Structure formats: C-alpha cells, structure tokens
Amino acid sequence: MADHEVLYQAIVTALIVGLSSSIIFRLWKWYRIFRLLPPGPWGWPFIGYLPKLKTNRHLVLTELRKTYGDVYCLKIGVHRAVVLNGLETVRHALVQLGENFAGRPSFHTFQFIENGKSMAFCDVGPRWKVRRTIALNGLHAFLKDKVHPVEIAMTEEAIYLVETFLGNSGKPFNPENSVYLSLGSITFGLCFSDHTLGRSNAEYLKLIKSVRDFTQNVAACNLILQLNETYL
Description:
Blueprint: H1 2-34, H2 57-68, E1 71-76, E2 79-84, H3 87-96, H4 126-143, H5 149-166, H6 176-192, H7 202-231
Antiparallel strand pairs: 1-2
Helix pairs in contact: 5-6, 6-7
C-alpha cells in the first residue's frame, strides 16, 4: 500500500510541476510579446475585440485613439492588430517604412488566390520582391514616354468621388459603392485604356459585386478556420 501511495504522490507531484512549468512558460512567452506591443484594450478569449467592432468601427477606433494614442494594439479574433491613426503616423508607416508594412496575414482564404502566391495577397519575402520588381519594370515600360494614365485616372476618379459626396447635400450616406467603383475603374482603365467605360460595363459591375461579396464573406471563414487551427 505504501508503494502505491508513494507512486500516486510522485505522479501528482509530476503533474503539478509539469502544469506549473507550462503555465510559467506561457506567461513568460506572453510577457515577452506584450512588452514589445503598443498599449491597447483587452479582448475576450477566442474572439478578442470583435464584438465591439461589429458596428460603427470607425467611431470605436476613434474613441480608442483618445485613450491609447495614434498607435495602439487590439486583438481581432486570434490575431493581434496594430492600429495606426493620424495623417503623420500613417504616412510615416506606409511611405517611409512601406516595406515593413507590406506584409499580409496568413489567412486560409488567401490560399485560394493563385495558391497563396499572388503578389497582392502573399506575405513579403524573396518571391514577393522579385514579382514586385517585374511588375514595376513592366509598368515603367508601359508608361515610358507617355502621359501617366494612372495619375489621370486617379485624379478623375477623385473628382468623381468628391462630386458624388457633395451631391448628398451633407446628409449621411454609405460611400462603399462609390469607393469600390472608383478603385476598380482605375484598374479597368489600365487594362482597357478608358477607366470611364467600367461604370457602364455589365461584366465589370458583376466583377465588382463579386469582389465585395468575397471580402465580406471571407472574414468569418478566416476566423473559424483560425480558431480550429489554434485551439482544436
């Protein structure tokens, strides 16, 4: 009987030591990560700060800026995101440190687009840098000795957006449709030499709708798949 008690105590002790070591290691690991992150609000387990971002995200993020400043961190699902606010902060990140902020998260749905090797959706790395160089050289050759069509299209689309916004006479409205159409029209113009034709092209409008549906639906899929991969 004594031997069984000694064995039982040894097993219990080993379990306690193992569990305690695991908890201490995880806390130490979290501490190393958290001490390098900007300040930010705490989120719920698994879902993070998502419930409060369900509606009026821009207002929620603006309020958080008042508390945590122009750079803060929050948890979206199982991912941690750093939120940038203010013109100077965003310009510093995207212009002066552009390559550092050019990465993409490893979302499962991105793998459906060219097997995750698309220049727009893959993370920064040697492959991305080579493809970016090829794309820039091709664009430079296309624009050589010509009036810059991208700048013209962007200027005209900006004017279109301003006129559309002013046409609402100061009343609240959802700019999503107008922004999607303008951004897509610039790409349409590069491909077909006239960005204004896109608004009357049925296939183009169908494509824009598909892009919108894709971006709206993949968010939930990414969250569920990431939860399954991380916690199950």
